[in-house]
């Protein structure tokens, strides 16, 4: 019996959002190596679909300034970032000790242009967050981001620089509370660890748990100190389908929105939770996956949307293109337009990822038990943390420059680090919680 699937989303008339879409045409040039499942090419495929569906007419498209070493060090250690900037396939033998120390090797290989690749994902998420802060857009999209496994001084799970943590740090300059939601099949361990001790960020991850990478994210991992009850983990089993997924996703997100009252939200849209993924074990259709985006969008908060995992390229590209349409509020034809990678989408050439007849190991009893405990934990946060409020000056100079830009592909202006640092939240609110060495 085929799993129950959701229907295409019905976009409400006039439900438009100002979307800033970040894309760097160089991103598809980087390769982890022959046989490696992570392929940056899927971002180029998604972009080709997005452009050929005409979504560029409904968005502003930017090529962000790559993140600098100094910017990466807002989260990562100097020593780790310096290593990433210096190591190459030609000199990697000289960095044998560092490769062991920083977990660079098999899953996270050294490849040509590694640091530039990290700069693209990091810079786009940081600039997306900065544009949200300046109220230049309602939603910022960076499909090259979502690298949620990277740690403060360690690569992990195909991720080197944690663009999400960098984006959240940027959002915290203007927003007292930020919500992070992760629908990748793998636990968002790097982001959770980064903010495990603070109540200014709530992390919420729906993921496969049990003999599965990275092995973290059990129900009882809820945060510590000020961050207690601000890490939400929903461990799932193989084969979860659309309707079962949303029976827990929607009530959890609604409870967080009601009780935590975030000022901004970051949504990681890992495509490895789709049915038929090379490394995944869930059974979500494209519409089931995209309904998460539509639901979070409906709360009308500043929203940073990033990519993540996804190892069946044609399905990831289809889904991220469709979800870009969801972000801008535009329905898309089921028949794929001709695009640069049309042959990848045969034999049907349609915009859909169907579920399979995979068995759903998530019983109603199991899910209800987890949901009950998660909601009980969340109820303890319903009195939103009291944080010192302060006026934040506008970036007047940047505003005037942005208004002069055309609506074509733009070079995003992130401002200097010194300018950004003028907007840091009170010193006692955040920096201590970042010391996780």
From TrEMBL:
Its EC number is 3.5.1.98. It catalyses: N(6)-acetyl-L-lysyl-[histone] + H2O = L-lysyl-[histone] + acetate. This is Histone deacetylase. The keyword RNA-binding does not apply. Pfam families: Hist_deacetyl. Keywords: Chromatin regulator, Hydrolase, Metal-binding, Nucleus, Repressor, Transcription, Transcription regulation. It comes from Wickerhamiella sorbophila. It comes from the Eukaryota. InterPro entries: HDAC_I/II, HDACs, His_deacetylse_dom, His_deacetylse_dom_sf, Ureohydrolase_dom_sf. Gene3D superfamilies: Histone deacetylase domain (3.40.800.20). Residues 386-437 are annotated as: Disordered. It is found in: Nucleus. The active site is at residue 149. Residues 396-406 have a biased composition (Acidic residues). Residues 36-325 form the Histone deacetylase domain. GO terms for cellular component: Rpd3L complex; Rpd3L-Expanded complex; Rpd3S complex. A divalent metal cation binds at residues 184, 186, 272. Belongs to the histone deacetylase family. HD Type 1 subfamily. One of its GO terms (molecular function) is histone deacetylase activity, hydrolytic mechanism. Residues 407-424 have a biased composition (Basic and acidic residues). GO terms for biological process: heterochromatin formation. Its main location: nucleus. Substrate binds at residues 107, 157, 311.
């Amino acid at each position: 019996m085929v799993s129950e699937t959701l229907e295409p989303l019905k976009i409400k008339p006039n439900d438009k959002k100002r979307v800033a879409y970040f894309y760097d045409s160089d991103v598809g040039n980087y390769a982890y190596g022959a046989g490696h499942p992570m392929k940056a090419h899927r971002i180029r495929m998604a972009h080709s679909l997005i452009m050929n569906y005409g979504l560029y007419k409904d968005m502003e498209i930017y090529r962000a300034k790559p993140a600098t070493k100094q910017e990466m060090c807002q989260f990562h250690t100097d020593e780790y970032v310096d290593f990433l900037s210096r190591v190459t396939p030609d000199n990697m033998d000289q960095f044998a000790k560092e490769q062991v120390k920083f977990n660079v090797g098999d899953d996270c290989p050294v490849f040509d242009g590694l640091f530039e690749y990290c700069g693209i994902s990091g810079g786009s998420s940081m600039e997306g967050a900065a544009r949200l802060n300046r109220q230049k857009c309602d939603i910022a999209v960076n499909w090259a981001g979502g690298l949620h496994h990277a740690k403060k001084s360690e690569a992990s799970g195909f991720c080197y620089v944690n663009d999400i943590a960098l984006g959240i740090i940027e959002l915290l300059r203007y927003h007292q509370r930020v919500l992070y939601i992760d629908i990748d099949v793998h636990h968002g361990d790097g982001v959770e660890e980064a903010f495990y001790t603070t109540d200014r960020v709530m992390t919420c991850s729906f993921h496969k748990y049990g003999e599965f990478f990275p092995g973290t994210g059990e129900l009882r991992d809820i945060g510590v100190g000020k961050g207690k009850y601000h890490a939400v983990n929903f461990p799932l089993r193989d084969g979860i389908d659309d309707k079962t997924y949303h029976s827990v996703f929607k009530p959890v997100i609604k409870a967080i929105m009601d009780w935590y009252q975030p000022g901004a939200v970051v949504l990681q849209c890992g495509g490895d939770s789709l049915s038929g993924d090379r490394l995944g074990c869930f059974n979500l259709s494209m519409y089931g996956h995209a309904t998460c985006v539509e639901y979070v969008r409906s709360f009308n908060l500043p929203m940073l949307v990033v990519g993540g995992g996804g190892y069946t390229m044609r399905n990831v590209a289809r889904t991220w293109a469709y979800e870009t349409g969801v972000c801008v509020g535009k329905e898309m034809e089921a028949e794929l337009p001709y695009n640069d990678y049309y042959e990848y989408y045969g034999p049907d050439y349609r915009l859909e990822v169907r579920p399979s007849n995979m068995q759903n190991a998530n019983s109603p009893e199991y899910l209800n038990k987890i949901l009950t405990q998660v909601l009980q934990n969340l109820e303890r946060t319903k009195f939103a943390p009291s944080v010192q409020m302060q006026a934040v000056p506008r970036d007047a100079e940047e505003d005037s420059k942005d208004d002069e830009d055309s609506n074509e592909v733009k070079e995003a202006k992130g401002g200097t680090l010194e300018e950004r640092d003028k907007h840091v939240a009170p010193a006692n609110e955040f920096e201590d919680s970042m010391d996780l060495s």
